Amino acid sequence: MALTLYTYWRSSAAFRVRIALNFKGLAYESVPKHLLRDGGEQRKADYLALNPQGLVPGLGHDGAFVSQSLAICEYLEEIQPEPRLLPGSALDRAKIRAMALAVACDVHPLNNLRVLLYLRRELGLDDDGVSRWARHWISSGFAALEQWIAANSADDRYCYGSSATLADVFLLPQVFNARRVETDLGPYPRIVAVAEHLLTLPAFAAARPEAQPDAE
């Protein structure tokens, strides 16, 4: 299958999809879209024709196109079922999705690039104010995730059970974001332990921002 990932090295949403592709053992062509250069390459007409939202990541597959990181990851789960990112029973999968969604819907949208730029340019927040905003929402989400990991992880190496799942795919990039804005991770030892373990896994380590061809 021919897979093309429209990506940006520091995008945590693209980071998730890189992990999922690696985990599934799927080869892909990487097409970087710099989110700041020339007003944002993701806003150019050629890319908007594929993705009217003008966001990364986007996945091209044999002439088709899928947007939104969660939708892409679930698409990959369907076209390449093994190894599974959503294993177990219906209840297991619902809990795993809930953890991933806590990041995708409640944490990340409030501290992604376009929101932080709006806070600076339109509302006049300085760098410290923007970072405080980001840290607040990350900490709020991590407080819940820490409890969910305590309740569902078999050994504090994974968010759920004893193997990597979609929850881990979404957690690790958010930990990178948290550290970039100097969030205090002391209250979240399980999150830190899971993130440290995930980075020992090739699929996760190879997806790190600094390992990407377009990294600056």
Identify the notable features of this structure and list them briefly:
single chain; 216 residues; alpha+beta; Glutaredoxin; Glutathione S-transferase Yfyf (Class Pi), Chain A, domain 2; 2 domains; four-stranded mixed β-sheet; 8% strand
Polypeptide structure, described:
- By secondary structure, the protein is α+β, with helices and mostly antiparallel strands.
- The chain folds into 2 domains: 3-83, Glutaredoxin (3-Layer(aba) Sandwich); 90-203, Glutathione S-transferase Yfyf (Class Pi), Chain A, domain 2 (Up-down Bundle).
- It has 9 helices and 4 strands; from the N terminus they run βαβαββααααααα.
- The chain has helices at residues 12-24, 45-48, 69-79, 90-107, 113-121, 127-152, 166-180, 189-198, 202-205, and strands spanning 3-7, 29-32, 58-61, 64-67.
- The protein has a 4-stranded mixed sheet, with helices on one face.
- β1, α1 (12-24) and β2 form a beta-alpha-beta unit.
- The longest helix has 26 residues, at 127-152.
- The two termini are 30 Å apart.
- The model has no long low-confidence stretch (mean pLDDT 96).
Give me the secondary-structure topology.
Blueprint: E1 3-7, H1 12-24, E2 29-32, H2 45-48, E3 58-61, E4 64-67, H3 69-79, H4 90-107, H5 113-121, H6 127-152, H7 166-180, H8 189-198, H9 202-205
Parallel strand pairs: 1-2
Antiparallel strand pairs: 1-3, 3-4
